[in-house]
Design a protein that fits this description.
The protein is mainly alpha-helical and about 150 residues long. Helices cover about 85% and strands about 0% of the residues.
């Protein structure tokens, strides 16, 4: 939900500013991708409700991945809020529309960190999918063995 709130703020800003910096669009794109992966992980954990699902989440949490996500999304939120429009402050709002408050290198570094977290989360999903597939193969082999034994 935290990434969703940031995306609402960011896309709200983009809808009000016709010539928003490309950096904020790219930053929001990375944030949206991270949001999608986090939603997939959350859905998987909630639907599975088993020790392995909780184990993956606990592993990511113990490694600090989820804390890093929250920290980076907090930085994105700070960036987006600093660009936000304030009712009744036309001069400040105009300045906010024209000026990007962060340096290009800072923004690129933040996008690289977001991409790194996406890769970690995607790898975790891939590993879990491989584990699930292996369990299915083992169950299939056991069924085949029992069918052959019965024949």
């Amino acid at each position: 939900s935290f990434t969703g709130e940031v995306l609402v703020l960011g896309y709200g800003y983009l809808s009000k500013v016709s010539k928003a910096p490309a950096q904020i669009r790219a930053l929001l794109s990375e944030t949206a991708a991270l949001n999608d992966l986090l939603a997939q992980i959350q859905d998987w954990v909630e639907n599975e409700r088993n020790a392995e699902a909780a184990g993956v989440l606990n592993s990511l949490n113990s490694l600090g991945v989820l804390r890093d996500c929250q920290k980076l999304i907090g930085l994105v939120q700070k960036i987006v809020k600093s660009c936000g429009q304030v009712f009744g402050q036309a001069v400040q709002n105009t300045a906010k529309k024209l000026l990007w408050p962060f340096k290009e290198n800072e923004t690129k570094d933040l996008m690289v960190q977001l991409a790194r977290l996406q890769e970690i989360l995607a790898a975790a999903i891939a590993v879990d999918s491989a584990r699930a597939l292996k369990r299915l193969e083992e169950v299939g082999k056991a069924i085949d063995h029992k069918v052959l034994a019965t024949l």
